[in-house]
Structures are given as structure tokens and as C-alpha cells.
Amino acid sequence: MTRKPAIRVTGIEKSFKDVEVLRGVDFDVEAGSIFALLGSNGAGKTTLVRILSTLLKADAGTATVHGFDVGARASDVRESISLTGQFAAVDEVLSGRENLVLIAKLRHLKGPGAIAEELLARFSLADAGDRKAATYSGGMRRRLDIAMSLIGNPPIIFLDEPTNGLDPQARIEVWQTVKKLASQGTTVLLTTQYLDEAEQLADRIAILHRGTIIQNGTLAELKKLLPAAPVEYVEKQPSLEDVFLALVGDTGETDTGGPGAITDDGTESDVQTQKEIQ
Ligand SMILES: Nc1ncnc2c1ncn2[C@@H]1O[C@H](COP(=O)(O)OP(=O)(O)OP(=O)(O)O)[C@@H](O)[C@H]1O
Ligand SMILES: [Mg+2]
């Protein structure tokens, strides 16, 4: 059985004055999958996301989102998606709870208070729910932003560089959130310039370079493009990220003495433990 793709992009072109940013972009995103659009700064990732979310018109080509043409059926597209932009869109004067209630009300949903409550709990923001968002850390703000975009359960979500500027624990939390969403059937298109993020999350990865998709495949398919390196005996060194996470834990809590915290007697460091596990 072939399912219709959740997103289909065909020959999309876009220039800003004489700068050709997108020169014919094509790809499909299968429903319920995580698709990563990978590209350097200025590659055109945000431009493409803005076209797919109807904020910007393409110069040529077509795109359908949830079966609707982004040009002709823009309002249907908007009802089927949510967009978490590259820069967190939370209202800093409001508390986390108030931000969520506001969006639920704007979407005319019943029980905005209960919706806010459920999302605060799901995104580990219950304790901070009544604080102004201005006092949140970058990771908390990003989680609130994603929580806001899930109100109304859109079938497709766009995440533009969802972990930009986050510390390793906050990134892992966002990754877990995204994986969970996809496992529940939401289609996720995310952009990133972090290779490990695409590697961790995506079912398929497309590389946007000089205005076109130069490769599109699963991680295994992309890895096959390079010949395997000859096997040599090398001691596996932990990456700095392994060390950092072993020292501070990957729970997102920095002060609880959770997994990976250094014990008072300081004898057994978790760096050692991590190494043993590997
Ligand atoms: N409204 C605009 N007017 C003129 N040029 C623009 C406009 N929007 C984007 N551009 C240009 O288009 C190119 C692609 O920008 P875009 O923001 O899509 O890149 P990106 O891949 O999202 O980069 P980053 O990783 O830095 O977010 C850049 O050269 C940018 O300067
Ligand atoms: Mg961008």
C-alpha cells in the first residue's frame, strides 16, 4: 500500500532580488516520519520552511502539505501545521501557563486551562508554569515554544533549528520530545545544521546545498556513499559531549545530584562508568 506523502515539494524556486536561494527543490516526506533538512548557514532552510508554512510565496514549483497546495489552499495548510520558528516565539511577559492558555483560546479549543496543565506536565514545566517566560532558560523557552505549537494536535509540524543554542541536556530533551511526537503519528520536518541531530532523529535526511537537494536518503543510505574506512585498532575516546553528560547528567536537571552527578566522596566518577558501559 502506498500512502500519500504528508509533504510533497516539486521544483520549488525562490530568489531574493538577484540572489537565487532555492533553484529547484524536490522531496517527499512520508506521513508520521521525521525528515531532516540539513544545510549550512544561508542554505535556504528557513526560506523553504516559510514557503511550506505559507508565509512566503515561491517563484516557481509546487508544494503540497497534508494534501493541500500551499499556494491555492493556504488556509487549509495552516490548519494542518504548526511552525516553531528559529527564534522562540513565546511572549515573555506572560507565564508559561498563560502562553499556553492564550494559544488554546486563539484556536477556539474547549478547556484551555486543562490543555495548558497537561502540556506543562508533559514538557516538565509544571513547577515553572506560573513564572514569567522571561525568567526561563533557553531550553525551557524552547520546550514551551514546542508545547505551544502542539496545541490543537496538528498532523504536521515544522521545527526550524529546534535546538539552536541549547545545552546538551536541553537538546536531548527536545530530541526525546520530537521522537515521541513522531511515534504518535505526527509528521515532523525539521531543519538543522547539526549533523548529530539529523543522525539521532531523522528517518530520512536531505542535504540542501547551493539551492538544490544534493542527497536524500536514510542515514544508512547516506553512509554508504563513502567507502568504509579500513579497520584499525584505536582506543575509543569519549567525546567531550560524553564527558559533559556524564558529569552533569542528561536529565536536564543541573542541581539534583541525579545520574552522573559527582558524589561527595568523589571516588567513582561517572566518566569512568560511562566508559565501562561502552
Ligand atoms: N527576506 C529576505 N530578503 C533578502 N534575502 C533573504 C531574505 N530571506 C532570506 N534571504 C537570504 O536567503 C538566503 C537563505 O536564507 P535562509 O534564512 O533561508 O537560510 P538558512 O538555511 O535558514 O540559514 P541559517 O542556518 O543561518 O538559519 C540567505 O542568503 C539570506 O540572506
Ligand atoms: Mg534558518
UniProtKB/TrEMBL annotation:
<feature type="region of interest" description="Disordered">
    <location>
        <begin position="254"/>
        <end position="278"/>
    </location>
</feature>
<dbReference type="GO" id="GO:0005886">
    <property type="term" value="C:plasma membrane"/>
</dbReference>
<protein>
    <submittedName>
        <fullName>ABC-2 type transport system ATP-binding protein</fullName>
    </submittedName>
</protein>
<comment type="similarity">
    <text>Belongs to the ABC transporter superfamily.</text>
</comment>
<dbReference type="InterPro" id="IPR003439">
    <property type="entry name" value="ABC_transporter-like_ATP-bd"/>
</dbReference>
<feature type="domain" description="ABC transporter">
    <location>
        <begin position="7"/>
        <end position="235"/>
    </location>
</feature>
<dbReference type="Pfam" id="PF00005">
    <property type="entry name" value="ABC_tran"/>
</dbReference>
<dbReference type="GO" id="GO:0046677">
    <property type="term" value="P:response to antibiotic"/>
</dbReference>
<dbReference type="InterPro" id="IPR050763">
    <property type="entry name" value="ABC_transporter_ATP-binding"/>
</dbReference>
<dbReference type="InterPro" id="IPR027417">
    <property type="entry name" value="P-loop_NTPase"/>
</dbReference>
<keyword id="KW-0067">ATP-binding</keyword>
<dbReference type="InterPro" id="IPR003593">
    <property type="entry name" value="AAA+_ATPase"/>
</dbReference>
<keyword id="KW-0547">Nucleotide-binding</keyword>
<dbReference type="GO" id="GO:0005524">
    <property type="term" value="F:ATP binding"/>
</dbReference>
<feature type="compositionally biased region" description="Polar residues">
    <location>
        <begin position="269"/>
        <end position="278"/>
    </location>
</feature>
<dbReference type="InterPro" id="IPR017871">
    <property type="entry name" value="ABC_transporter-like_CS"/>
</dbReference>
<dbReference type="GO" id="GO:0016887">
    <property type="term" value="F:ATP hydrolysis activity"/>
</dbReference>
<keyword id="KW-0813">Transport</keyword>
<keyword id="KW-0046">Antibiotic resistance</keyword>
